[in-house]
Structures are given as structure tokens and as C-alpha cells.
Amino acid sequence: MYWLLGSVLTIRWVVRSRDVPGRRLGALAAGIGTLTALALLARAPLHDVVGTGALLDLVGAGAIAIGAMRILGGFRDDDREEAPRHRGNSTLVGVLDIGLGIALILTSDQTSTWVRYVAAAWGLVGGTLLLVDALRLRSNGSRRRASARRRGDDLGVGGRA
After folding, report:
1. N or C: where does the chain have the smaller number of CB atoms within 10 Å of the terminal CB?
2. Residue 156, pLDDT score
3. Residue 117: how many CB atoms within 10 A of its CB?
């Protein structure tokens, strides 16, 4: 569900960010995330066709691709001022995505203990950093809207004048 929800949110960002330079990279990430999510959701019927090892390789490749795009800045909105510390969060989540992808590709068994530890670390650290970033973005948006109201600007739905 993580990849599916992430894909939907990325598609939403791509549609709303028509002039943002990383838009195409974001669209590619959304496509990869959607394919990864569909592979995971359909793993039972796919198991007879492709097997567990191939499915783990597919999900691992998707995680590596998403991680590389995070590191390259495919999920950054250049319109928004971003502190270097928060860019580091995105890079760290990208590294965790790549680590999970490598772990999934290197294993041939879905019950491998070390892959479970890597996935747990990825979920805890990555999820926490993404949640903190989302709360920060929400707070910044609220401050921008309040400031615009004080100035008398009309920000509209997308948050831009």
C-alpha cells in the first residue's frame, strides 16, 4: 500500500506542478511505484507465473529506482525554499529505499531474517522522516496562507498567487 499511496500522491504533485523541473522524474517514479504496488498486490496469482525470487527482484528494482530518484531530487519542489537539513532527510530516505531494494534482490527467500530487519529499519526511519517532512510542509503552507491573508493576497486552491 505504501507504493500505491506514494504513487497517487506523486501523480497529484505532477499534475499540480506543471512548471517544476523535476516533474518528469516524478511521473516516472509514480509509474514505477504503481507497477511495484500492483506486483505486490497481485503476488498470489503472480507466484505461479513468475515465482517469489522474480517478484522480490521486481520490488527491489522498484525500491532502488524510487530511492535513486529521491536522491536526485525528483521529489523536490524548487518553488519551495528547503533547508539543507530537510534535503538530507530526502537523501537518507533515498538511501534506505536503495538499501531495501538491494536486500530484496540479494535474497531469494521472503522469510529471510536479515531482510526483515532491513525492511523494519526502512519502515521506521523512512516513515518517520517522511511524516516529519509532511508535517513541516503542512505547517509552512498554513503560515504562507495566513501571511497572504494578512497582506490581502488571494492564494487560491494550489497555494499560489
Report:
1. N
2. 53
3. 11
**DSSP 8-state class, residue 76:** -
Alpha-carbon distance values, 50 to 39, 46, 47, 97, 110 (Å):
11, 6, 6, 23, 14
> Please, is 103 exposed, middle or buried when counting C-beta atoms within 10 Å of its C-beta (0-12, 13-18, 19+)?
buried
User: How far apart (Å, rounded) are the C-alpha atoms in residues 107 and 69?
Assistant: 23
Residues 6+ away with beta carbon under 8 Å from 85: none
Contact 20, 43 (CB under 8 A): no
Positions in the chain short of pLDDT 50: 78-79, 85, 161
Longest CA pairwise span in the chain (Å)? 62
What pLDDT does 161 receive? 46
Q: Is 79 helix (H, G, I), strand (E, B) or coil?
A: coil
Residue matched to cell numbers 538499501 = 99
pLDDT at 79: 47
First to last CA, the chain: 34
Q: What is the pTM of this model?
A: 0.69
Query: How far is 95 from 101, CA to CA, in rounded Å?
Result: 10
